[in-house]
Each structure stands twice: as C-alpha cells, then as structure tokens.
C-alpha cells in the first residue's frame, strides 16, 4: 500500500512557475508557431481565402507540389555518430560571398497583398540574418524602395523577359543602379500555369470588392483594414493592373524567348546571372554553357506545369553534370530545415524558400518572417548536429537516402 501525505508549501513552491505574459498580440500568436506548418495554419486563419490560396496553391491538380513535399517526407537521413558537433557552422558561400545561412528568400509576386508590410519586411529580415533576398519582377514594392529598406542586404532582382524588351532592360538597369548583386532570370513561364484555386476564387490584382470578398472581409477585418488604409499597391515593374494573374502574365511575358536570348541578357547585365526554372539535366548544362553562374532547380513551386520533374529527384544528376562550373540551388516543397539539409547533402549549394516566409508574413508581418527564419535556422542546426555534421561543407550524399 502506498503511503500518502499532504504536500508542504515548500515542496509545491518550486513547481509553480508563472509563464511570462506577452502583451503584444502578434508576438503572442507567433510564439505558438513551432514549425512552418504552424505558421501556415495561422496564416490561413488571418488571411482572406483568395489571397491565402494564391500563396498556398499550385497548378491544375497540384500534383507537382504534392510530389515535391512527399519526396522530402519520404527521404531518409543517415546520421554518423560520435562526431564533435559542439559548434555548428551554418554559413556557406553563395556567389563567392559568405551567407550566414544556407538558404535565401525566393522572389514572390504581389507580396504586399499577403501583408501590407510586404517586400520591405522581407528584405529587412534578410539583412538581419545575413542571407540574400530576390525581389520579383511582379513584386509590389519598387526596386528602389526595397534597396532603401535593406541597404546592407544582399539583393537580387528576378527578371521575367517581357514582350517589351526595352521595359525589361530598364528594370535591369534600375537594379544595377540600386546596388543589386545578381540577376535571376526565370525561364519556366512562357505562359501562365492553370492555377485553378485562383480561378475558382475569382482572384484579381488587386482584390475586387464583390459580394464574396465583402463577406470574406467580415471574417478578416484586420487584413482589409490594412489593405485599404495603407498606400495603394504599387508594383516593382508596372504601374497598375486590374485583371487576373494569368491574364497579366500572358500579356506581359515573351513566349518567344530562347537560349539565344541569354546573349541579350549578358549584354545588359555584367554581374552574376542565375537561371531559375531548370527541370532537366540537359537544360542545366545548356544554360551553364551559355554563361549562367548558377541554376535554380525549380518547377515554380508546382505553379506552372503540373506533373513536372521533382527538383530534389534530379538534383544529384544535375550536380554531377554541372560540376564546379556553376552553383546549383533548389526550391519547391521546402517546409523545414531538414528539407534544406537534405538538398545540401545531395549537392545543392543553397536553397530558396518562398512559401515558408510568406506564411510567416501572413501570420505576423515582419515578425512573422523573422519567426520563419528562426524556425528554419533552428531546424537546420539541430538536424546537422543529429547527423553528426559540424558544417555545411561536410554534408554529402551519404547523409541522405531517397526512396
């Protein structure tokens, strides 16, 4: 029989620990986010459905995006025990300069719709944590304003080739004048993908005030107040637009672009050139032979061709084909630091994350982006330590097994 006694106050007192009270509602909300998936859940609650779906969705049946995430989920990490991991170095060289973390913030369109702080918030966080940030051609903050918001950040400009080549050349020249380090040419959007969530939601840029969106406004009043009481959406590359995203892309972008046009790009840009949207080994080798300094293995987050190749699957073969002639980056499907570690081990020089920080932005503005960076950084560091790898340069294919 167990003897019982009434606990004395001196025994209870050490167990009573009052949790510090967080008075800021944004910080209180973000404290609950332990993963990028948690940030996604918060973002979904706080953002109008059409805006959330624009960020979260992909093309057609969304098979490409599911496959990318599923491959990350099914890959197996292979730890090496009894290694000194008392100090973990997360830094790596990207385009010949040290990045404090092995990932960069990817270009995303219409970012101020996700949260009114927009691209300025993202570049400020990139500056804080010491990583590159790529401003999209379809960004909602100007090239110059982003440069002013993050004067010491490593800034890249992502370019789509326009039908109006003079307009595209002007964007490149403005980027150079504003101190952008690299040009990222995206090549997987000859026409817009079929993003069916956007069609079903009647999503336009900017959001239209319809009976459906007015009803949604009653469920997300803070978002609408911020949209309507801050400066109107302006674009990095055009003055205004009042239609759908697909209509905008099909009207602006040049479907006649070929490999020969890289010579034109090189004639107007003499800095590092990154080609984004590579989905085969042959294309990776072709663009490197044509003068690319880096390639991004990407199917546009699954937002263009559904059933496209999964970037992580082709990564080892691309790394072998390209060798040391160019850097290799990877995006699509990344939802954790372990995903980033797996890509690095299989040959990527760095990863690009887009949705991950956008979920943070929607969940809490700049603080939410900071939280996303904190989560990914902690996960990368912990995963490397558990793998027995003290630095990014020590990661190799023996640390990952793909199904």
From TrEMBL:
InterPro entries: Aldolase_TIM, Alpha-hydoxy_acid_DH_FMN, FMN-dep_DH, FMN_HAD, FMN_hydac_DH_AS. Its cofactor is FMN. Belongs to the FMN-dependent alpha-hydroxy acid dehydrogenase family. Residues 28-403 form the FMN hydroxy acid dehydrogenase domain. The keyword Oxidoreductase applies. Keywords: Flavoprotein, FMN, Oxidoreductase. This is Alpha-hydroxy acid oxidase. The keyword Chloroplast does not apply. It comes from the Bacteria.
């Amino acid at each position: 029989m167990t003897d019982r006694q009434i606990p004395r106050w001196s025994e209870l007192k050490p167990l009573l620990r009052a949790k510090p009270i967080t008075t800021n509602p944004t910080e209180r909300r973000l404290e609950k986010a332990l993963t990028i998936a948690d940030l996604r859940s918060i973002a979904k609650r706080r953002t109008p459905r059409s805006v959330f779906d624009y960020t979260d969705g992909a093309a057609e049946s969304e098979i490409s995006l599911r496959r990318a995430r599923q491959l990350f989920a099914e890959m197996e990490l292979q730890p090496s025990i009894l290694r000194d991991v008392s100090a973990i170095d997360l830094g790596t060289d990207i385009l010949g300069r040290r990045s404090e973390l092995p990932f960069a913030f990817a270009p995303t369109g219409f970012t101020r719709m996700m949260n009114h702080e927009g691209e300025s918030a993202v570049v400020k966080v990139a500056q804080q944590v010491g990583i590159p940030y790529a401003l999209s051609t379809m960004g909602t903050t100007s090239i110059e304003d982003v440069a002013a918001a993050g004067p010491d950040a490593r800034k890249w400009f992502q370019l789509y080739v326009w039908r109006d080549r003079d307009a595209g050349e002007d964007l490149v020249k403005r980027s150079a004048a504003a101190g952008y380090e690299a040009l990222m040419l995206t090549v997987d959007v000859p026409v817009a993908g079929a993003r069916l969530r956007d069609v079903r939601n009647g999503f336009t840029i900017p959001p239209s005030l319809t009976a459906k969106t007015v009803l949604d406004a009653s469920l997300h009043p803070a978002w609408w107040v911020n949209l309507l009481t801050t400066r109107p959406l302006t674009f990095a590359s055009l003055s205004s637009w009042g239609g759908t995203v697909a209509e905008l892309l099909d009207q602006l972008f040049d479907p006649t672009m070929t490999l020969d046009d890289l010579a034109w790009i090189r004639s107007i840009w003499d800095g590092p050139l990154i080609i984004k949207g590579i989905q085969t080994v042959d294309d990776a080798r072709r663009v490197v032979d044509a003068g690319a300094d880096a390639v991004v293995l990407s199917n546009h987050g699954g937002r263009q061709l559904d059933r496209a190749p999964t970037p992580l699957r082709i990564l080892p073969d691309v790394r072998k084909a390209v060798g040391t002639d160019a850097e290799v980056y990877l995006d699509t499907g990344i939802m954790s630091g372990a995903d980033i570690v797996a890509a690095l081990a299989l040959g990527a020089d760095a990863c690009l994350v887009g949705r991950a920080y956008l979920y943070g932005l929607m969940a809490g503005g700049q603080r939410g982006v900071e939280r996303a960076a904190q989560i990914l950084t902690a996960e990368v560091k912990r995963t490397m330590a558990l793998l027995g790898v003290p630095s990014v340069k020590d990661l190799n294919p023996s640390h990952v097994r793909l199904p």
